[in-house]
Every structure is written in structure tokens, then in C-alpha cells.
Amino acid sequence: MPADVVEILRWGHSGLAAVLEVHPDRPVALRELTAGPVSVRARVSQPVVEVLVPGEGRARASQRLSETAVGSRLRYAGSEQSSADGWHELRVRMRDEVSGLAAELTLRSPDGVPAVQASVRVTNRGEEPVLLLAVTSFAAGFLGLPAADLDVLYGDSDWLGENRWTSRPLADHVPDLGLTGHGQHGKSVFALTSTGTWSSGRHVPMGGLSERRTGRTWLWQIEHNGAWRWEAGDRMDGAYVALSGPTDPDHQWSELLAPGESFVTVPVSVAVSDDGVEGAAAALTAHRRALLRPHPDRPALPVVFNDYMNTLMGDPTTDKLLPLIDAAAAAGAEVFCVDAGWYDDGGDWWDSVGEWLPSRSRFPRGLEEVLARIAGHGMTAGLWLEPEVIGVRSPMADKLPAEAFLQRGGVRLAEHGRHHLDLRHPAAVAHLDQVVDRLVEELGVGYFKLDYNVNPGAGTDVGATSVGAGLLAHNRAHLAWLEGVLDRHPHLVLENCGSGAMRMDYAMLSRLQLQSTSDQQDFLRYPPIAVAAPLSMLPEQAANWAYPQPGMTDEEIAFTMCTGIMGRLYLSGNLHRMTPEQLALVRDGVRLHQSLRPDLLRATPCWPLGLPGWDDPWLALGLRTEHGTHLGIWRRPGAGETTVLRLPHLAGRDLRAQAAYPAPQEGWSAAWNPRTAELTVTATVPAPTARILHLRPY
Fold first, then answer.
1. Residue 3 pLDDT level (bands cut at 50, 70, 90)
2. Which of 155, 246, 454, 620 fits 609 for a cystine, CB–CB 3.0-4.6 Å?
3. At CB < 8 A and 24+ separation, what contacts does 350-353 make?
């Protein structure tokens, strides 16, 4: 290619357009990624791939994953486009002649969906080994727009306080430093990272940028069940984003590539929209559905009753479970999961788990009696399982070889009384396969709640260049193990739980069927978690606890039921002690949820009061479908009697707000204004109180 020729590489489909600029003297850059018409007016210089190696580091000193020496030298070496099975794919090849490294960027997008999945393969084409310290999965300038014009969206997460989203001006983190006048790209950066194997233990593995004036938005997710990093910063030609898995500065990750060897990054996905965060969330929702592994659970979405939350709390026995099973069936549950404790004979099971044999003291006539009672009601039997850990007092701690555990310096890692299996080792995999196969084939278990309550830290130094590389290989082996379980037992339903939602990512959720959204036991604090959940996951995967109790008022029962109804209903509570009237109120909520399931599979979320704040007195979640909009509305103590919900997608339409749950809707009223697209809601009954409404045409 002549030195003065710029080649424009166009790729996409009806829902997505991408434009890459190819130049013989510069790295490949993504100029456009949009759901609308391509303008090709942006001028961006951020390389599409960044590679950090120790011998050269960055082209200019900074702590960013932008302008690395190798990334700045990568040059276009060809591309291919293809389409198959409803997916479009672009592969762009690049080469750095100095280091001998070749990089191939792969972009994949489902037909008609304005979102793309990206990953990078780096191959050592040279004659000497090369140590990788970081490789981006996706890097791009944000449409040539300055940081001063943009808002950055990110989600904090914690045990009991998941999905706490914040939108702030990017300039609050990356100030305008007059870069053009200095002739250099900036050094400041806003970066979020994870730690160890809790991919959402501190932050949701997602983020976004929005142009404040027009609403143009990119929303991304990092699809990895381990360590990750994303960053946004400013360059002379505008803001950029860089998304990656583990890195050396953040996670003690490095990978030594011998000549001819390759490394593939973790996948990430980016959704685009001209309609703000809600538009990008709708695009990401469609993209997530395209990523899912097919499973019989998906069209059924059975209601799960779990005995743990505010009920048995890890202390199940035959006498406690049998009446609870009967009541759960009467309420309409379709799965009954026996949670933690079913394997415990000693009463102090935390650091002794690992064999997963049913207790004889808790179930004198065998766990089989309990599971038969579940099956006798036509429900699927489920069990809690924490497969990746072995308690320090467990017999399995001595039966398995030391190499079957994550280690540092020849010592098995221990955290909170547990060792952590290394699923790269065949003995660890064989043990877990034996446990799962035995419980499924001998006891008839059809559902597992897979919990995960420890974080082993940076990784393992056994059989790896670095502890971070050891952890990444284990993460990938864990995903392979899950796939093997589902291949052997295609009807088995697997719930993703990690101390609530500490491992809430689409490496896991593209494979598993539902996600516990929290361990939060306070029904007044749960609504902001549930309302925000559909930004982090599919609404039909968001298993929100509803735990009504006989000591609650009818309004309190309805309040907690509404929290579960608007996602994947996850029921608990001492239903067997309720009055017939209370149980009928629960059963009405279950029936409403069951009637919503076909819509739930197609719905896109909206937030008529904005993304929820942790202490917001009023909260609202909308689920948009082709038939109308379902609204969940919660009024917490301290809230005024009236709030105004904004629903711009319904502007100009004559609608009625139909009461759905509970019935009758005493003390609540709603007035729709089609001109302003506002629904004024008034609740005169004392808080806490909540309702489900349907907005439909007359």
C-alpha cells in the first residue's frame, strides 16, 4: 500500500456498522461503531490492539493500556469477513516486525443486533520467546469525542449491595489538560479492575460512555470469570476505551510465548445505541440472548423455591423440610432447592465440606425421603453445592493430590477454612464429576445452586509463567468443566451464585441458566438490587429473592413478592406457617409471574425513575414488550405519596394503567399523560408498599 493511501474497511449488517481505518504508517484504528448511518467523520488514532511487553513497555510513559510500543507498531496484514448461523464475523490481521508478534482481532455480531463481541489472538512469529504483560480484547477511540462531552457509567458491587450504578462526567476523572497544545496524548485514566475469582466482587464487569448532548452510547461487558480491567481516558483526538482480562500491573499476570505459540484474550462485548443507556441496554440484552447456551430451562423459566433465605438458613432436616415442601408446592413452585447443610452431621460444616454425602442425622430415613416428597408434588429436586472448594477439615483434603489445589510457593492456598481446587488438574475434575453424576443419577437431582464463597486471590504459581496466568488457565478449565456437566446432563439446571452475586459475568451466564442477585436479607433493601439487575444480566436470569413471612402485613408480603416477580422469581419464606389468606397472596404473585414468563423472554428493561440509588425512596423497573410495558413500583418508608414515572417510548399513545398485583389495588392510583409520556403514581397506604402495573392500549 502506498504511504499516502488510507484504506477504509467497512463491516457490519442491518443492526451494526463498523469502520476501520488502515494506513501503512499507522496502526489500524476503529473510526466508527454505530447502530445508525455511518458518517466516517471521526478521526481517531487509538490502535485497535494494545500489547504490553517488558522490553519496551509503552511508547510514552503512563499507567494506561493505550499507546503501548507494540500496539503503536502493529500494521495491517489483511482481513476476512464471513457470515454463518446468524453471526457475522470480521478478522483483522496485524504484524509488528520489530517484536515478531502478530495479532488477529476478531469481531463477531449477531444479525440485526447493534452489539459486537471482540477478542484478540497474539502469536509469536519471531525466533525468541516474548513475555506478554497485557493484551487488550478491545481498544478504540470513542467516535472522536472529547472526554469533556461524555458521561461514564460504572457499577459498584458488594456482598449485600450489588449493582449500584453511577453515571458521572468523565471529566470528573479525566480532566481537560489541553493535550492538543502539548502535542501529546494524556496520561490520566479512569480504570476499574477486579481481584481474583470474584469477577463482580468490587465492580460489575461492565461500563459505558455516553455523549451527553446526543445520547450516543457504548455499553460494554467483560465476559470473564476472573480478573479483568477496563479503562477510559483522553487522547488528543478524543476519549478512548480499552478492555482486557488480567494484566501484570493489576493481577500479576504474564504469559511467556515461545516461537509459534499463541495467546487468546478473554472475550468482551460492546453494545451501541443513539438512544442513551436504555437503548444500549436493549442492544446488550439482545446480544446476551444470542450468547446463551441453549437449554430446556430457557422457555420454561420454572419458579424456584429455596429453603435458605430467612427460612432454614442452612439448617435443613426432614421434619423442617416436609411441611415446607408441601407449602411451596401449594404456592406454585416448580423447583424446590434444599440449600446449605444437607451434607452436615456435625453442625459446624463450613470447613469440612467437600465429600458432598447426605447427612444421616438430619435425614434419619435418608435424603431420598425428602427428594421423593419434592418429586411427588411434580417439582424438580435441587441441592446447594459449592463444588470448587474443599474444607481444610474435609476428608477430601487428604485424598486429593496437592497438585489438585491452587498453590503459592508449594503451599495449598487456604481462605476462610477452605482450600480451592485447581480445575486444570484431572483429579480435581474427576472428583467433581463423580459428585455431580452421583447426585443426579442416584438421587435424581435436577437443579444445583452452585455457590462460591471464597476468593483465592491472584492465582497459583504451579505450572504457569505467573500466578495470574495460572488463575486464568484455571478460570478457563472451570468453564470447560461446566460445559462438560451440561453436555452429560442436558436437562440439569445450574444456578450461578457466588456469595450472592460476586461472580456475575457472562463467561458464567452464557452457560448457566440463572443468577442469584444477592444475599440481602432485608426486604426493604433488596429493591434497588433487583431494579438495577437487568442492566447487569438478562431479566429472565435475574433470580431475585422474594421471602414473604407469616409475621408480615399484606403490604409487606406484596412488597417482597414484587421484588421477585419482575425477574426470575426466587421464592423462600415460612409459607407453611401462613394463614390461608397470606398463602393466597403469595400464590397470586406466583401466578402473575408465571403469566409474565413469555414476555420476560423478550422484554427489554427501562428505568422510569432512572437507575436506582441505594437509598432512593421510590424505585421503578419497566419491562418493555411488543404488547405493552410491565411496571414494578416500590415505595419505601420515608417516601412521599406521589412520584412521576417517565416513559418516553410510550409518548403520544393512549394507554391505561392496569392493576396486576396485588388485587385489589386499594390505596394506589395512576394517571397517564400521553403528551408528556409521564405516569403519575400516588400511594396513600403506608410504606412499605409496592405494585405491579401493566401499561397497555385501550
1. low
2. 620
3. 350/391, 350/416, 350/417, 350/418, 351/391, 351/392, 351/393, 351/394, 351/416, 351/417, 351/418, 352/391, 352/393, 352/394, 353/386, 353/389, 353/390, 353/391, 353/394, 353/418
Amino acid 347: pLDDT: 82
CA atoms within 13 A on the CB side of 324: 26
Quick check: 152 pLDDT over 70? yes
Termini Cα distance of the chain: 63
d(CA 208, CA 232): 9
Quick check: helix, strand or coil at residue 546? strand
Arithmetic mean of pLDDT, 576-592: 98
Nearest to 317 by CA among 351, 334, 340: 340
Single-letter amino acid, residue 450: L
3-state secondary structure of 571: strand
Strand partners, 628: 625
Alpha-carbon distance of 582 to 274, in angstroms, equals 46
Q: Where are the beta strands (DSSP E) in 245-315?
A: 255-257, 262-264, 268-273, 304-306
Tell me the mean pLDDT in the region 691-696: 96
Average pLDDT, the chain: 96
∠ Cα 351 354 355 (to 5°): 130
Residue 369, sorted as left (phi over 0), alpha (psi -120 to 50) or beta, turns out to be: alpha
Phi, psi for 357 (deg, rounded to 5) = -105, 135
Cα separation, 33 vs 17, in Å, equals 6
Q: What residue type is 97 in one-letter code?
A: E
What does the pLDDT read at residue 178?
61
Quick one: which of 603, 514, 532 has its CA closest to 293?
514
Answer for the pair 34, 17: CB distance below 8 angstroms, yes or no.
yes
Q: What is the DSSP-derived secondary structure letter of residue 69? A: H
Has residue 1 got a pLDDT over 60?
no
Taking CA atoms, 196 is separated from 59, 226, 229, 423, 467, in Å, by 29, 6, 12, 15, 10
pTM score of the predicted model: 0.97
Rounded Cα distance between 350 and 328, Å, is: 27
Assess whether the previous peptide bond of 528 is cis (omega < 30° from 0).
Answer: no
The arithmetic mean of pLDDT across residues 455-480, rounded, is: 98
What are residue 691's DSSP bridge partners? 633
Residue pointed to by grid coordinates 411451596: 328
Q: What is the pLDDT of residue 346?
A: 84
Q: Read off the amino acid at residue 434.
A: Q
